[in-house]
Write a structure and sequence with these properties.
The chain contains five helices and four strands. The chain is an alpha/beta fold. The protein has a single domain, classed as 3-Layer(aba) Sandwich (Rossmann fold). Helix 1 links the parallel strand 1 and strand 2. Helix 3 packs parallel to helix 4. The longest helix is centred in the C-terminal third of the chain and has 26 residues. It is globular and about 50 Å long. The two termini are 20 Å apart.
Length: 160
């Protein structure tokens, strides 16, 4: 398989970091974003492969930051083959005992962040005609016990 370029929001820890390392180990080019510059630098230092790994400080709920991350991905690697909206927050608790003041940032990152990434990435994903099968393969290659909720952006008319 030819090397692909993948942008992962929230890629400095957890599932995002594991996915980034897996993709790098398989020869792909990866861009990870995160809000914490120190955490991002630590991840980049540990992961290595500066020729195939780019880290960007970006808030997934910020349109300009998301658009810039997509643009910089394409500028650095020449294409964008897949975008993984991994950034997310968990405010904890249930509706009954949760903290309502924590819900707005959670919704912004978990819902708006996904929509912003899809909007920014779509023109580039259409240009590379990334097959849906590749997204499914990616989801299936996750470690045992990892539940992957996937939203796949595909060009209109592309067969499913």
């Amino acid at each position: 398989m030819a090397s692909k370029t993948v942008l992962i929001t929230g890629g400095t820890s957890g599932i995002g970091a594991h996915a980034a390392r897996l993709l790098i180990d398989h020869g792909h080019r990866v861009v990870v974003t995160g809000r914490d510059e120190t955490k991002l630098k630590t991840f980049l230092d540990e992961a290595g492969h500066p020729d195939r790994l780019l880290g960007l400080v970006a808030d997934a709920a910020d349109w300009q930051a998301t658009e810039s991350a997509v643009t910089r991905t394409v500028e650095r690697f020449g294409a964008l083959d897949a975008a993984v909206a991994n950034a997310g927050l968990q405010s904890g608790g249930s509706i009954g005992d949760g903290d309502p003041t924590a819900w707005a940032p959670t919704v912004l990152i978990n819902v708006l962040g996904l929509a912003l990434l899809a909007h920014a990435a779509l023109p580039h994903l259409e240009a590379t005609a990334q097959p849906i099968a590749e997204a499914i393969r990616f989801a299936l290659e996750q470690p045992a016990g990892v539940d992957v909720d996937t939203v796949t952006v595909r060009p209109i008319g592309q067969p499913i």
